[in-house]
Design brief:
There is one protein chain. This protein is of the alpha/beta class and 261 residues long. It contains eleven helices and 13 strands. The chain folds into two domains: 10-113 and 217-253, Periplasmic binding protein-like II (D-Maltodextrin-Binding Protein, domain 2); 116-214, D-Maltodextrin-Binding Protein, domain 2 (3-Layer(aba) Sandwich). It has helices at 2-26, 53-65, 79-84, 99-102, 130-133, 145-154, 166-175, 185-193, 211-214, 227-242, 245-253; strands at residues 28-34, 37-38, 42-44, 50-51, 67-73, 90-96, 106-112, 116-121, 137-141, 159-163, 180-184, 201-208, 218-222. It starts with a helix and ends in an 8-residue tail after the last helix.
Length: 261
């Protein structure tokens, strides 16, 4: 009887372990590509951890969808190639939904929308026109919508200086190595103007929202054909807005609503 009882206990233990392993295997996981060099949307802290609006949104969306989330840090100009090579499953990195990018990847609905601006030294009276920018050096982050906009509109008259990250652009603007840069308003304000480095600088010219270059807002990029995942993200974005989570994350970084109309 003791042997039979012992065997029964062993079998039960094996069944429990097997069920636990199956349960672990059932946990959904997803890898999200992020930048880590575009505050306040993404920033790499001194200890190597990531913070920012995009980072918080990534974890909130994963939790809403029931996914275990892993963030993969990636330089901006390698974002889409790394997605297509399956280094990760989605990009949450303040990527504009443009027709050009739609040729390569699929997008969710927008999760925020914001105008862009030029920024230059205060008192420069920089005129945002072909004549006003003639001979000027304009710093931009490489392979961005800002790069495309400046190149298409002023590339014939101005020198376009390209950088790996917007943080590098701001450093050279502060050092006087470029005359101006173009970036999203929130990145300009929170990542530069509202810091000691931004003293003596200001936005110049009008808000720029032209959809030909800046698309229909900022979305999550996925591989074409991942329709089920795209709809999961869309549903999660809507739910975060409805239950107030989006507002809490928004208010952590901004004093105004960045979702847009």
């Amino acid at each position: 009887m003791n042997k039979i009882f012992t065997i029964a206990i062993v079998i039960s233990a094996l069944l429990i372990a097997s069920c636990a392993q199956e349960a672990d295997n059932d946990v959904k996981s997803i890898k999200i590509g992020v930048e880590g060099a575009y505050p306040p949307f993404s920033k790499t802290e001194s200890d190597g951890s990531l913070s920012g609006f995009d980072i918080d949104m990534s974890f909130a969306l994963c939790e809403e969808m029931g996914y275990e989330c892993t963030l993969v840090k990636q330089d901006w100009d390698g974002m889409i190639p790394a997605l297509l090579s399956q280094k990760y499953d989605a990009i949450i990195a303040s990527m504009s939904i443009t027709e050009e990018r739609k040729k390569k990847v699929a997008f969710t609905d927008k999760y925020y929308q914001m105008p862009v601006n030029f920024v230059a030294p205060e008192g420069s009276n920089l005129d945002i026109s072909e004549s006003g920018l003639a001979g000027k050096k304009i710093g931009v982050q490489r392979a961005t919508t800002f790069d495309t906009y400046v190149t298409d509109n002023f590339g014939d008259v101005a020198e376009i200086v390209r950088y790996t990250s917007q943080e590098e652009v701001f450093l050279d603007l502060q050092a006087g190595r470029v005359d101006a840069t173009l970036a999203e308003r929130a990145n300009i304000e929170e990542g530069f103007l509202n810091t000691p480095a931004g003293s003596g600088f200001a936005t110049v010219g009008p808000d720029i929202t032209d959809p030909e270059w800046f698309g229909d807002g900022i979305g999550i990029a996925l591989r074409k054909g991942d329709d089920e995942l795209r709809e999961e993200f869309n549903d999660a974005i809507e739910e975060l807005i409805e239950d107030g989570t989006y507002e809490k994350i928004n208010n952590k970084y901004f004093s105004y609503d960045i979702f847009g109309n």
